Amino acid sequence: MKLRIYQVDAFTTKLFGGNPAAVVPLKKWLADDLMQKLAMENNLAETVFFVPSEKKGAEYDIRWFTPLVEINLCGHATLASAYVLFEILKSKKRKVVFGSKSGLLTVRRKKEKLLMDFPSWKPERTSEYPADLASILGVKEIVGVYRNRDLLVELNSEEDVINAAPDFSALKKTGELVMITAPGNKVDFVSRFFGPSAGIDEDPVTGSAHSQLIPFWSEKLGKTVMSARQLSSRGGELHCEQQGERVIIGGSCMFYMEGVIKI
Fold this sequence. Notes:
Layout: E1 2-10, E2 19-25, H1 32-42, E3 46-52, E4 60-65, E5 70-71, H2 75-88, E6 95-100, E7 103-110, E8 113-119, E9 124-125, H3 133-137, E10 144-147, E11 151-154, H4 158-163, H5 168-174, E12 178-183, E13 189-195, E14 200-203, H6 210-221, E15 225-230, E16 236-243, E17 246-251, E18 253-262
Parallel strand pairs: 2-3, 4-6, 11-12, 13-15
Antiparallel strand pairs: 1-2, 1-18, 3-4, 4-5, 6-7, 7-8, 8-17, 9-10, 10-11, 12-13, 13-14, 15-16, 16-17
C-alpha cells in the first residue's frame, strides 16, 4: 500500500517557521494503531489524516495524532489540511468543512490567509493544579491558573513567557497540557505551549490552545479582534476573533515536502 504524505509549515509566511504538520489524505480510514505508528514514525507534533465524509454538513472527516496519542482538536494540522486541499489537490471551493471529535470545523480562504472556525472554550479559574507548578514551569510568579481542556497559566509579561524554563520530566509526570500566556509587546497576547505527556515537549504553534486563549484575552482586553504570537523557537503568528460560542483562528501556510509512504 502506498500513501501520499505532505509536510506543511502552518501559521507562518516563512519556510522553517510556524508548526510543521504531516498531512495524509485517505480514501478510507486505516486501522487506529497503524495511524498512531505513522504519527510516531513522522515524529512531528501532529500527523493528520482525513477521509471523504458521510456526515451531514461535512465534506471530510479529520483525525489528529501526536507521536503518542490521538487528540480531540488540533489547529495547525487542520490549517495544513485545508492548505493541501486548496493549494495541492486544487479544490476550487472557497471553504472546506471537516467533521471531527470537536464537531464541524470550517476553514475559509481569504486572500493569503486561511480562517478556521473553531469552538470557543472559555477557561475558568481553578485551584486544582500542582502546588509546585511555578517551579515546574521555571517561572518566578503566576498571576492566575485557569482550565478548560488544558491548563492556562497567566504570567505578568512577554518577557516572563520568553524566559520560562520548564522541567519537562516533572511536567510529564503531572499529565497536564499547559499553556503560559501574557500581554504582548507588539501583539495583543503571546503564549507558549507544553505537552510532554502527549509526546511534545514544546509545541511550536498550537491552534487548539487558542480556543481557550481567545475567549480568555477577549474578556480581559475587551476586544473581539486580536493578534497573537506563539513564542517558540520557530514562532508563529495568528489572527484571532471571538464570535460568541466560536472563535476564528487565521494564519498562513508554507509547503515544505511531498512524499510516498510504502507499507
